[in-house]
From TrEMBL:
Pfam family membership, one: Trypsin
Gene designation per UniProt: LOC118277685
Domain Peptidase S1: from-to ranges: 133-365
Coiled coil ranges: 67-94, 379-409
UniProt source species: Spodoptera frugiperda
PANTHER family: AT26814P-RELATED, POLYSERASE-RELATED
Family of this protein: Belongs to the peptidase S1 family.
Keyword Transport (UniProt): no
Record protein name field: Trypsin-1-like isoform X3
């Protein structure tokens, strides 16, 4: 009997057996919990956290398919083009928390007509301050991981933006009733982060302290900001990310597109259905002078306006406090607007964040939590286990490379080849070199 065996194949099989056995042994040393970041046991993770796109092309196709499927909701091709450009700017990796723009092509800045409803500060702000998304589309928290839902008494109340792992920035009027007349007792407000839904999934934390600018006056739209400190840090990751704050001299052009997100009413009246799933709408920035023409009261430097000349796309009831973002920077906070959401005569008005960046940074610095929440040890333990797992993987990889190097050198050595021939002869075989193959002949059948 004559058997032809490739020496290279023998070497490859031998290396594979050794390496695979090494990793099978190493894997048994890891518990199922190793490498898993801590999640709030009381709340299941949002399903979106399990549906990560494999690469940018798959993400682009999914986004484009969604937008084109609902393109009838948009006025023209420029709207869709602006949406696609804005959506592709998120670098989809686990370490990125900011957006990157690859291309900009904006339409002509819309000018709002001067004819409008009679309005003044008390009517416009107090009656319609709780704002909303109209004319937008459904989205995912993985696209806007900085967005949080603020609830009170188990009902959706406002939106907000993550600006630090334990801090959220929102509108002042959202927390106006936080104390209900008793400044010593904060009413229960809960934030939900890392979920596409305002009523389930993700990560929850309680608001344990509220800060307002000194200039803020309840019922007045100026300085409409509030800063919330949470009772526990949020686990920053793919679905929970921190937004950058603009510098005080940050400049916006009247053609810039802002992306506004929230769970507010989708009905123009502001009193219709409140969607469970996060929605977004792109709106162009308009000049303060043009915005001033739409309102009888004074539009202050702490405000910015955005909207289309044709209307139909706007924030709406329960979008208040939500973010208006460009290039990963929080530029505006949803504040107030007209009687009808999306009314072309009354653009949406946002609190300009660049005006309070220094106040926000100083407040956070001077009011870090004095006590470590009960959750913090668990988070620290999870992070430590993650570091240990990474070190273990590095050691295994190093050992794997050393074994491969040793095997390559050993298989090439004359000593190993002679030893292999000797063992084969002892087993009743002998070898004869023929055209780079070893022909093994059984003596008993020769």
């Amino acid at each position: 009997m004559v058997i032809h065996i490739n020496v290279g194949i023998i070497k490859t099989v031998f290396i594979s057996i050794v390496v695979n056995n090494l990793f099978r042994i190493g894997a048994t040393d890891l518990s199922a919990d190793d490498g898993q970041l801590f999640n709030n046991d009381d709340e299941p993770l949002d399903v979106d956290s399990q549906n990560q796109y494999n690469n940018d092309e798959q993400q682009k196709f999914k986004v484009e398919e969604t937008i084109m499927r609902q393109k009838d909701d948009y006025d023209n091709e420029e709207d869709i083009k602006a949406l696609l450009e804005e959506k592709y700017k998120f670098k989809n990796d686990e370490t990125s928390t900011r957006f990157k723009v690859t291309k900009e092509e904006r339409g002509e800045f819309p000018v709002f007509p001067e004819n409008h409803d009679e309005r003044h500060i008390a009517w416009a702000f107090r009656s319609y301050a709780v704002r909303r998304i109209v004319g937008g589309m459904e989205s995912s928290v993985s696209m806007y991981p900085y967005n949080v839902a603020i609830s009170r008494n188990a009902k959706h109340w406002c939106g907000g933006s993550i600006i630090d792992e334990q801090w959220v920035l929102t509108a002042g009027h959202c927390l106006e009733s936080a104390f209900d007349g008793d400044k010593r007792k904060l009413q229960p407000f809960i934030i939900r982060a890392g979920s596409s839904f305002h009523n389930r999934g993700g990560y929850q934390a309680r608001v344990n302290k509220v800060f307002f600018p000194h200039e803020y006056v309840p019922g007045n739209a100026d300085y409409d900001y509030s800063l919330l400190r949470l009772d526990r840090p949020m686990p920053i990751g793919r679905n929970i990310a921190v937004l950058n704050l603009p510098s005080k001299d940050y400049m916006m052009k009247e053609s810039d597109i802002l992306i506004v997100t929230g769970w507010g009413s989708t009905d123009e009246s502001g009193y219709g259905h409140i969607p469970d799933r996060l929605r977004f709408v792109p709106v162009p920035v308009m000049r303060l002078e043009d915005c001033q023409k739409s309102y009888r009261f004074y539009i202050t430097p702490r405000m910015l306006c955005a909207g289309y000349a044709t209307g139909g796309k706007d924030a709406c009831n329960h979008d208040s406090g939500g973010p208006a973002v460009r290039d990963g920077v929080l530029l505006g906070i949803v504040s107030f607007g007209g009687k009808q959401c999306g009314d072309p005569r009354s653009p949406g008005v946002y609190s300009r964040v660049s005006e309070i960046t220094e106040w926000v940074e100083d407040t956070i610095t001077n009011n870090e939590a004095n006590t470590v929440p009960e959750l913090m040890p668990k988070i620290q333990k999870a992070r430590q286990r993650e570091k240990e797992l990474q070190k273990f993987k590095a050691r295994v990889e190093d050992k794997k490379n050393k074994i491969k190097t040793w095997l390559r050198e050993t298989l090439k050595s004359p000593t190993f080849i002679e030893l292999a021939k000797k063992k084969l002869k002892e087993a009743g075989f002998h070898t004869r070199r023929t055209n780079d193959y070893d022909t093994l002949n059984d003596k008993s059948r020769r």
